[in-house]
């Protein structure tokens, strides 16, 4: 039983884009999906990926692991209109991930049991335009979810080894000195780093010097915000397994003056 | 068979407003609809129409052509609380458009096969307030979609010739010299003009001088963003049939310092 | 029949948070709910409560009175990670309100017929993190709505008298001189005050001096925006029963330079 011969009806869909909430494109994509499958449930996972940032897109798309098995669309696509491939990935959990072949879907696929099969997407709703979110991704998602098309009906099977690699790699650990990349900044100004926080218990209450290009601050490793005074910095888990620099009820982003993809240097104090 | 005698049950709804995503009014309107029809599917088409801009509202509401047949609510309504009429428009495709009689729904209706019938809306949920999005538009949408009321139960049939005309007219073509109006600016800073891009193939690779009140830039007519260098301007299709001034991975809005309803002058170079 | 012994299946859910629309947490919470109950309908009531403002959270959460009976989640929670209780409130209308015990849900509960029973929530999806929106509130909402758990299965019944009191009290009336608190500011810059507008008819067309810390303006009490000239101030109903300072097609917030929780002084003129 594989993608090649199996119709994969699904009615759960999710959207992750850098369109921003001001875009009518989000509603239009939903319309295109609902036109194929009128009982679709479409979850907006994130529409505020930093424009064109594959690193931020990777981090946000990883969150599909909290969604039910479904068809998950990713549109962070600086290469739209060029010859980059559009692809569908069948995960071992049973999801179908749809988006450009630029590595952004790889981490999420690995969190869903890994990649089972990959197909190109070679159809489009309209030849005229370069709105691939609507014409390629939402359109093919609707056809697949409704059972009108199998993955093999809309493209060719390709080797998973041929896919672009993930732009976001967490090969760092918290240690005496480590450079990290800002992979996300949330509304509160909390800064998420590409450092796994699995071993946070080994570092609780340690002091860490945290430096951007413009400023250094000293934070304490903590489990929770309430554990430091208002306005004080802490290094904690981001809720998803990475370290996060935060100020209790303040903005670490404003304090350190960084943005997504900035470099942050950490140094454990004695 | 007309609106007069026909109950028009629908469970697809869409919302287009200038409320902005920070408004609790969006959720409240959904609550009012769901209170009448508990299997409603409500699509947020756009909530970031520029405040009070009928031109921008018209352009955004045109996107309902990508949605399934349903009840489409439009709230861009600088005249709320005055004696402007509230209306429901039955389109030839079978949709019902609900909103104020200020011309903003006309283009969309024409894209859905044209206007079949028009009724006033003469009911409201609460006499007390001026929140017509909730008290008039969402309330009547729920009653109509649930089949509790026909269009003729909630208002009087009026002649379509009596409606306010559309504020957004595309009577321009790309030519040697042309003045256009900015009808939309998206999150990336792309500028959409009231010039139909149907004949873009005749102009591919031509250079165009694009001038706002404060600055001129030279753009090339292209099919896709990837076809120009990062940061360089292009004139392309907006994905919906109008010309769009864009910078590849940059903001044309910031470059030309324009806003919705600004004037942009185009001049084809030799 | 009470919460103790009754499974309370519901498929209508709503979310009110201060996460902002840029948060992936909203989509993640929906995923967690849908993983328990795949026909859930989840309404985003408001995600732009001013960060950590219990007063603004109270006002926004009151809007659940326009939603169908359901499970309504509130996450405005400056005390997350401390020992504040997580609670579920069964209202007399039949809703279940889920959130922190910090008073923010009290006004809404009173608008839904009052509090019937209250339970603590003593379960969580993950021990590791402090993302209570996902791990406590959405998780328990899904278990309750799906009928897998009763309120008494996930916590202990507590006395409603033991709950934190509401942070938002409207004990003011419009009168000769009155100090009020800004409880909300909307996208248009309209300023909502903690003064009940029930008796607005007694004051129609009266002039009112409205003063912030930095500026005073003179507004007229009106029913509707259209009733004053563009740019002119008015004092009207906010659509939900409180007084609202507004400029017709302008921003009262910018004019008076106030924010949520600022003090505004009103003085009725002769």
Name given to the CATH homologous superfamily of the largest domain in chain A: S-adenosyl-l-methionine hydroxide adenosyltransferase, N-terminal
Q: What oligomeric state do these chains adopt?
A: homotrimer
The first-level CATH class of the largest domain in chain A is given as Alpha Beta
Which structural class fits the helix and strand makeup of chain A?
alpha+beta
| CATH hierarchy: architecture of the largest domain in chain A | 3-Layer(aba) Sandwich
How much of the sequence lies in strands of chain A comes to: 25-35%
Instruction: Describe the global form of chain A.
Output: elongated
- Secondary-structure element sequence of chain A? EHEHEEEHEHHEEEEEEEHE
> Over the alpha carbons, how many angstroms does the gyration radius of chain A reach?
20 Å
The number of helices of chain A is: 6
Structure explained in plain terms:
The structure is a homotrimer of 270-residue chains. In chain A, strand 12 and strand 13 form a beta hairpin. The model of chain A has no long low-confidence stretch (mean pLDDT 92). Chain A folds into 2 domains: 151 residues, 3-Layer(aba) Sandwich (Rossmann fold); 92 residues, Elongation Factor Tu (Ef-tu), domain 3 (Beta Barrel). In chain A, 19% of the residues lie in helices and 29% in strands. Chain A contains 6 helices and 14 strands. Chain A has a 7-stranded mixed sheet, sandwiched between helices. A 7-stranded mixed barrel of chain A has the order 8-9-13-12-11-10-14. The first copy, chain A, is of the alpha+beta class. Chain A starts with 11 loop residues before the first strand and ends with a strand. The relative contact order of chain A is 0.15.
């Amino acid at each position: 039983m594989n993608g090649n011969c199996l119709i994969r009806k699904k009615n759960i869909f999710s959207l992750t884009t850098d369109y921003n909430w001001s875009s009518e494109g989000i509603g239009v994509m939903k319309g295109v999906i609902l036109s194929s499958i009128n009982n679709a449930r479409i979850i907006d996972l994130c529409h505020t990926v930093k424009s064109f940032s594959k690193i931020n897109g990777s981090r946000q798309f990883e969150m599909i692991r909290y969604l039910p098995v479904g068809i998950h669309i990713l549109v962070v696509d600086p290469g739209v209109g060029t010859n980059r491939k559009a692809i569908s990935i069948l995960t071992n959990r049973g999801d179908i991930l749809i988006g450009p072949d630029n590595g952004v879907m790889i981490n999420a696929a690995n969190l869903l049991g890994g990649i089972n099969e990959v197909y190109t997407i070679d159809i489009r709703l309209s030849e005229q335009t370069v709105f691939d979110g609507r014409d390629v991704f939402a359109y093919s998602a609707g056809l697949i979810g409704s059972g009108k098309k199998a993955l093999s009906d809309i493209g060719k099977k390709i080797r998973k080894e041929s896919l672009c690699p993930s732009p976001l790699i967490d090969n760092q650990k918290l240690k005496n000195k480590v450079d990290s990349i800002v992979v996300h900044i949330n509304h509160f100004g909390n800064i998420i780093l590409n450092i796994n926080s699995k071993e946070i218990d080994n570092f609780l209450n340690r002091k860490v010097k945290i430096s951007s290009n413009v400023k250094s601050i000293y934070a304490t490793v903590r489990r929770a915000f309430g554990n430091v005074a208002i306005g004080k910095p802490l290094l904690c888990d981001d809720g998803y397994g990475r370290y996060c620099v935060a100020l209790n009820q303040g903005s670490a982003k404003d304090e350190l003056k960084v943005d997504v993809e900035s470099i942050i240097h950490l140094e454990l104090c004695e």
